[in-house]
Design goal:
The protein is mostly helical. The protein is about 50% helix and about 5% strand. It has a two-stranded antiparallel sheet with strand order 1-2. Helix 2 runs antiparallel to helix 5, helix 2 packs across helix 7 and helix 8 crosses helix 9. The longest helix is centred in the middle third of the chain and has 14 residues. The protein starts with 16 loop residues before the first helix and ends with a helix.
Length: about 190
């Protein structure tokens, strides 16, 4: 835990741990939290943009969101598997009113706070013994970043694509964001077999 005034950096899920988390949530009937994790990962949106989504925003095959931080409009297509699961969860929850917030406070009916989301994520980390260091709302976006970067193929192309998706102002910011370390850079040179 960070001391007051000290920043912590959200960690990404590694390996199959994110999929394990989604499976555990689904098996336990934690559908809203499964949906939160899926949407946060599959859209690479920040919590400030996910928490305010309404059902009508995600029932279509594409999500259009105006990012709170950047004010940029993004149109994000859902892949078929993600869209099917969104519709499944919608049905499992009794098909709520499409104009309702998905992630709403029971007390106020307004979107839940980031503090509440982080509190629940910490509880899930303990309950499911998740292998992730600093688990917070931003972990899903970082997991998306590592997923894109680690895809097979040209890492430099993956990095450029990730930079475009995340709308970072430079590739250096994107590299730092996903935690490309000096060790990984050195491993590239060490792997040369010429």
């Amino acid at each position: 835990m960070a001391r007051k005034g000290q920043l912590t950096t959200a960690s990404p899920f590694i390996g199959g741990e994110f999929q394990r988390f989604l499976t555990l949530l689904g098996n336990d009937g934690e559908y809203i939290w499964e949906l939160y994790a899926r949407l946060s990962f599959c859209t690479a949106c920040r919590s400030s943009d996910v928490r305010v989504l309404k059902w009508k925003d995600v029932l279509q095959s594409k999500l259009q969101v105006t990012e709170k931080k950047t004010k940029k409009v993004r149109v994000i297509p859902f892949n078929e598997k993600t869209h099917e699961r969104i519709l499944d969860i919608y049905g499992l929850l009794g098909k709520p009113d499409e104009d309702e917030y998905i992630f709403k406070s029971r007390r106020t009916g307004k979107p839940i706070t980031i503090q509440r989301v982080n509190q629940v994520l910490k509880e899930f980390k303990e309950k499911y013994n998740l292998k992730i260091d600093n688990f917070s709302t931003h972990s899903f976006r970082k997991t998306f970043g590592r997923y894109v970067y680690d895809k097979p193929g040209d890492k430099s192309q993956n990095l450029v694509m990730l930079n475009l998706i995340l709308k970072h102002s430079s590739l250096d910011i994107t590299k730092r964001y996903i935690g490309i370390t000096e060790e990984e850079v050195n491993d590239v040179f060490a792997s040369l077999d010429i």
